[in-house]
């Protein structure tokens, strides 16, 4: 198997309690050709010190320290600006990944080749919840299937960044960035633009990403009601992006729902 460089972008804000486990899970990957971008968004705890300590020990870690807190979208944009890998992955600073997570993703991407890879994930609340066997089947996805799975409020595709791998060449060609004025569904906006410009998608059925559920996360702190206005605004923008590609929209809205039950 070839070993292209993979850039892993990790925004960090006040996650000192979780950060050591997160970074160690990347350092201990079976796949070693990594650029680990740790972006501290002006944390008020000791997250920056944790990052500095790891950066001094492992040359693959590239720290970025933001002068002021600007939010997760700005932090991810800072990471994208420094990314050099053939592939780009994202991880949240309080999550962690299994040792073979990246090697499995790279092997699947190279076998395609594919433009985007997505996989199911574990939800740690606080211990990892099992993933149903029906969600662990490898398969290619059409654009419509991927969009539908991304926008569904349940399932293991969803609109998240961290259970997907991307080609940096696509991100660069599209000048893709995260909208820094959006704090809810910024992932879905980015993913929609990426998906509408590409055509080769694969669902890799082996979960390896552990998403840690926290009551003090940005989304949870807004509350269900508080998040609604931004969600509606983001959904409207997603639809506008899709309308720019009428052919792709036709696939997305008219395709049969034969596989939706498996997402």
From TrEMBL:
Domain Glycosyltransferase 2-like, first and last residues per copy: 7-134
Keyword field: Glycosyltransferase, Transferase
Top-level taxon of origin: Bacteria
Matches recorded under InterPro entries: Glyco_trans_2-like (IPR001173), Nucleotide-diphossugar_trans (IPR029044)
Pfam families named in the record: Glycos_transf_2
Name the UniProt record assigns to this protein: Glycosyltransferase family 2 protein
Biological classification of the source: Bacteria, Bacillati, Bacillota, Bacilli, Lactobacillales
